[in-house]
């Protein structure tokens, strides 16, 4: 029988009959600022499951190894069981969010090169930004793994930036998580969705991601629906 083994802010993980596979459920819960702000949006889980499934499929076609085995239903993915690396890898093309807040780099600045940052995945500490050396000292990953994570994050950006441009969406920044299989292989895990990316409409600059929730802009579900519609259109 399926047993709940993990519940995070936006997803649940269940065991399956196969010890190497898990069922990942996308929840309708929306949180921001380390869950200080909470809400629910009926249908959000299904939208993210659909978006993430399409994006992981596109990445697989382009040689990125992911945990996704298949989509089971509207809100469930069957995934490889991995041990999640406790590092959130953030990739930034344009300055906004915490980069602007922390360093006063003006909002909307096109960065001279793609910036890759590491954050320690620890809710109690508020996911602090860390350097490679912090990650090594804390044994979050080996030197080789850090290189693999950063190379994979850049490759994902190189695939997704032009893809989203073809959807008339500017991929501003995004966060990815990785996991280790039993034999130490690193796979892209978690999700790639408007919860974990920032998308600005290429023409109007309108925000079509979780910033609508973070900043109380309204129309969260409509924005996620629009992102899915554009992805499906571009993949036709
Ligand atoms: P930030 O500007 O708030 O640091 O966010 C950078 C990117 O990472 C942005 O696309 C949103 C995403 N993100 C998450 O997916 N989870 C998080 O907990 C945070 C803080 C950001
Ligand atoms: N993911 C974090 C939270 O759920 C922060 C954020 O995305 O803004 O609280």
Distance between the termini: 38 Å
Radius of gyration, Cα only, in angstroms?
Answer: 17 Å
Count all strands and give the number: 14
- What structural class results from the helix and strand content? alpha+beta
Bound molecules: thymidine-5'-phosphate, aspartic acid
Shape: globular
Which stretches of 5+ consecutive residues score pLDDT under 50? none
How many helices? 6
Q: Would you tell me the overall average pLDDT?
A: 98
The helix-strand sequence is EEEEEHEEEEHEEHHEEEHH
Largest sheet: 7 strands, antiparallel
What fraction of the residues are assigned to beta strands by DSSP?
Answer: 25-35%
Q: Provide the helix percentage.
A: 25-40%
Explain the overall architecture.
With 236 residues, the protein is of the alpha+beta class. Helix content is 32%, strand content 33%. It contains six helices and 14 strands. Strands 8, 9, 10, 11, 12, 13 and 14 form a seven-stranded antiparallel beta sheet that branches. It has a five-stranded antiparallel beta sheet with strand order 1-2-3-7-6. A two-stranded antiparallel sheet has the order 4-5. A hairpin with an 8-residue loop joins strand 10 (110-120) and strand 11 (129-130). Helix 1 (44-61) runs parallel beside helix 6 (220-235). The radius of gyration is 17 Å and the shape is globular. The termini are far apart. The mean pLDDT is 98. Bound molecules: thymidine-5'-phosphate and aspartic acid.
């Amino acid at each position: 029988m399926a047993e709940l083994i993990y519940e995070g802010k936006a997803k649940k993980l269940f065991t399956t009959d196969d010890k190497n596979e898990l069922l990942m459920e996308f929840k309708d819960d929306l949180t921001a600022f380390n869950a200080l702000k909470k809400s629910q949006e009926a249908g959000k889980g299904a939208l993210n499951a659909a978006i993430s499934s399409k994006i992981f499929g596109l990445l697989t076609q382009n040689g990125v190894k992911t945990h996704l085995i298949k989509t089971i239903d509207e809100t469930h993915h069957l995934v490889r069981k991995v041990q999640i690396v406790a590092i959130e890898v953030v990739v930034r093309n344009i300055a906004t969010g915490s980069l602007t807040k922390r360093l006063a780099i003006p909002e909307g600045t096109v960065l001279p090169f793609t910036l890759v940052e590491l954050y320690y995945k620890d809710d109690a500490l508020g996911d602090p930004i860390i350097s490679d050396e912090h990650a090594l000292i804390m044994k979050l990953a080996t030197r080789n793994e850090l290189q693999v994570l950063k190379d994979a994050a850049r490759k994902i950006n190189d695939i997704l930036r032009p893809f989203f441009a073809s959807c008339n969406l500017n991929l501003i920044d995004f966060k990815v998580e990785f996991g280790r299989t039993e034999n130490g292989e690193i796979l892209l895990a978690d999700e790639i969705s408007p919860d974990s990316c920032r998308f600005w409409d290429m023409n109007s600059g309108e925000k079509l991601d979780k910033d609508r929730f973070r900043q109380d802009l309204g129309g969260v579900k409509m924005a996620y629906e629009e992102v899915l519609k554009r992805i499906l259109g571009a993949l036709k």
